[in-house]
Structure prediction request, 188 residues.
Amino acid sequence: MPKILAVAGSYREHSYNKRVLNIAAEGAHNAGVEVTVIDLRDFPLPIYDADLQADGAFDANALRLQDVFNEHDGFLISSPEYNGGIPGGFKNAIDWLSRSNDKYSMYGPVKGKTAALIAASPGQFGGIRCLAHLRGVFTIMGVHVLPAEVAVTFVGQKFEGDAAEMSDEKTKHILESLGSSLAGVLKH
Prediction:
């Protein structure tokens, strides 16, 4: 059975991106794949600096993150947009994920795998600029990114406070369908 890793690029506890990610993950699970949702807060990382690797050392949490990505066949990724791009904390995690060490070659944990992308924003563009940035970064890392992506606009209006359940059925269906599409690609 294919395995999908779901990760949000936000570190906020009640992040909209974590909530929309969970909806897409449910769609993937309902399509018959195993889904693991992780929280980047469980992988605290220093700011990437090649000097930290100069003596052959590699951050333990970065290695744990690489292991988790390596164990999965595909990825559901949801990210907020900060200043038109990937949030710094998430980009830092991606930079650590991509680095070579004694266990993995550069891009090793992700190369040749498939991802589906989501962004959610309280604004009218739904994080669309971040999606282009994410697509470029993951493509460089050798990840096959599905052509379909979801930008959730006015996301704050689609949830009641900090609730996990989305009130907008159309958007919920679109998110579940993206998760199901990724599952379908991985199953064939």
The domain at 3-187 is CATH 3.40.50.360 (Rossmann fold).
